[in-house]
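Continuing the series of single-chain predictions for the mutant panel. This is the parent chain; the variants come on the following pages.
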Amino acid sequence: FQRQHLRHNESYFWLMPTKRDRVPEYFEKLPLNIATEMTVALKLSNEDYLLYDVYNPSYRHGGKLNVTYMGSWNVNNGLNLLTTQYKYKRRGNLHGLVLNASIV
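Parent structure:
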């Protein structure tokens, strides 16, 4: 993904299905940021998926990948989202990440 220079900002919404039982480790190497709109869908069966919100507060500044359970989807009940907060409020804890700032 990284070599292809794909955009992982709020302009694009990513749905990443996988048959693995957890979010793949290669997501830690993607240049994600706090605005990333990426959902990883872990396949439980042909009809059931667990959905996770995936972002990094700031890959450029050494932030850590954050994976948050956001709900599920299945053929019978459709989409069931548990995340009700505004995206930036939900992601407000930067986990001690130090950011650079300038004032002019």
